[in-house]
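Q: What structure does this chain adopt?
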Amino acid sequence: MKIIKRIALILLLVFFLFLGLFVIPYFANIVMPWQRAEAINTALEWGGLKELPHGSEVISVETKGSSLTREFIIEFTCEPKALQTWMQESGLNQLTPVEEWNGLRVYQVAGKEGAIGGKVFADYTEGRVVIDVSWS
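A:
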């Protein structure tokens, strides 16, 4: 009887760990540390953007959405010169900013890999970028 109770307790513990580490974060839009690199890469792919510049510092990685939609918001900083190069390699320098917002230039990007696209907010003087792309 004690063995059955221990097995049931272990199974219950495994179940709650699975719920807490995988299921709840997915629906609560939490990016776990081991999902951070994948979220960044997905956002870059969806926006048709190149890898983040060497030496860039990722400030935040957020996700929003439901089981039918997903949105990634990545904020990073880098040297202004590296930002210029990244913008050029990503093809953003060929786009006209759709608006200026709090000193940031806002570029509309078409979606890739089935994404609906999004926006890239760039501050050339501070070297700060926010990428916001969605899939539906």
